[in-house]
Amino acid sequence: xxxxxxxxxxxxxxxxxxxxxxxxxxxxxxxxxxxxxxxxxxxxxxxxxxxxxxxxxxxxxxxxxxxxxxxxxxxxxxxxxxxxxxxxxxxxxxxxxxxxxxxxxxxxxxxxxxxxxxxxxxxxxxxxxxxxxxxxxxxxxxxxxxxxxxxxxxxxxxxxxxxxxxxxxxxxxxxxxxxxxxxxxxxxxxxxxxxxxxxxxxxxxxxxxxxxxxxxxxxxxxxxxxxxxxxxxxxxxxxxxxxxxxxxxxxxxxxxxxxxxxxxxxxxxxxxxxxxxxxxxxxxxxxxxxxxxxxxxxxxxxxxxxxxxxxxxxxxxxxxxxxxxxxxxxxxxxxxxxxxxxxxxxxxxxxxxxxxxx
Length: 358
Ligand code: UD1
Ligand code: UDP
Description:
alpha/beta, 6-stranded parallel beta sheet, globular, binds uridine-diphosphate-N-acetylglucosamine, binds uridine-5'-diphosphate
């Protein structure tokens, strides 16, 4: 089978890795297209090399820009590549602008497509990721849902494609990389951290980087909490701190670092006392690492992480962040929901290889 994967942003490289390995193991022809949505070395090249991913066959070099430019250019260039390659199936990952462009082009070219991480919803239609997920789910022929909640969402929306509960591909990335990370990463020593003696913070969502108040609230909360905080900063957030001239508000206990590689990130997740994040991927990894998570949003697509007690939603107000920290600090022993124990890459390939699918 000729399988074409389209990726462009950091979390998509991490989702691709275990599937790519399974595709190659089973002897299928694999073609990887990188749209170039993320291009900084520490968001792209480092992740590819740490995960042992092959160099993409095509890099469209689209880069950053307004929505219309970015998705428009992806559509134009992807159409050409997909027409030339004529894959048996396109694999589309997650909820980024790359996901949206891939969904539209594959549907127009009548190429079968499967959406990995289908059915996730947070109920906020103004959010770019929610729009991208809805479009991808409704244009896909096959929907690989990570959780029972996602399957129910797809049923409710009556999507055309066939949905399967396969678990989450990121679980397999985590499981494979964690022992390697423990052996290779020296981030704890490099940043002079004590195990379970620091908080890990990530924040990058559009809705959390639109106004300076969100950053000021988070910084105030961190100052009051007083524990050391490590913040590998996403370029979007870095840019906003610069534009609003907020660098002098950064509290003394906050260590701001460039985005770290995936291996360093896993070691930070495992050794932190609490994770504060608005990232989808990091919420799940917190559960897998056994570290309590405080999500800096009012909603989440990953309800199962809340139900098992590993994660809470606190929004971005100072007092609720502090209360959330006090509630979650020291918690452990979360039981992993069944959907996060499935081997998603194996199940996905089994389904793709079944005669009625392709
Ligand atoms: C994108 C996804 C988001 C995902 C995140 C993962 C969309 C709509 N959003 O958000 O769902 O959680 O990736 O990290 O697709 N930039 C750089 N270097 C880079 C990439 C970006 O400096 O390599 C800066 C640019 O100023 C750019 C900004 O970050 O304008 C935003 O990048 P973009 O890819 O549009 O969205 P993300 O915020 O990264
Ligand atoms: N990640 C990383 N380095 C960092 C921050 C995050 O490798 O400095 C990894 C993290 O472990 C997870 C993924 O990136 O696997 C999550 O991506 P991100 O938070 O950018 O996007 P989201 O999951 O919110 O779409």
